[in-house]
Each structure stands twice: as C-alpha cells, then as structure tokens.
Amino acid sequence: MTLALEIVLVITSILMVIFVLLHRGKGGGLSSLFGGGVQANLSGSTQVEKNLDRVTILLGLIWIACIIALNLINTYSGNPGPVPA
Questions:
Q1: What is the pLDDT along the chain (85 residues), one digit of tens a residue?
Q2: CA 82 vs CA 6, 23, 66, 68, 79: distances in Å
C-alpha cells in the first residue's frame, strides 16, 4: 500500500509541475508555445485554460491526499521511524 501511494505521489508531483508550467501567466507562459497565446489574449479565458485549471486542482487534491495517507500509515504502522541522534 505504501509503495503504491509513493508511486502515485511521484507521478502526481511530476504532472503538477508540468501542468503549472502550462498555465498562462501575465507574460504568456509555456502555454503560448502550443498555440494558445494569441487566442487566449483575444478571448480572455478559453475552455482549454478552464480544463487545465480543473485538472491541476484535481492533481493537487490527489497529491495532498497521498501525503496525508502516507503520513497516517507511517504514524499508525508501529514503525517508529528514524531515531534522532
């Protein structure tokens, strides 16, 4: 169970970095590299940006849930963890 949560955590971390970099910021961001820059400036927020926001929020929620679950498993598994020096 712990290994599966750790794998999901790594995958969601990498995807979060990618999706956050794809967001259009004040300067255009990396999303303008894929052709969204001109249309997004003319029409405000496009459907692609809205979907990108939704996916990023969903990934963030999965990421937070994995962190909480791993912490709970580590706390209640009976393993004391590293001993302080």
A1: 889 999 999 999 999 999 998 887 665 555 556 665 555 455 556 888 889 999 999 999 999 999 999 999 988 887 666 666 6
A2: 18, 39, 21, 19, 9
Rounded CA-CA distance 27/21 in Å is 12
Place of tokens 């020096």: 85
Establish if 84 belongs to a structural domain.
no
Q: How many CA atoms lie within 13 A of 78 on its CB side?
A: 0
Looking at the 3D structure of the chain, how many domains does it have?
A: 1
CB-side neighbour CA atoms (13 Å) of 54: 6
59 part of a folded domain: yes
Q: Is residue 67 assigned to a domain?
A: yes
Specify if 85 maps to a domain.
no
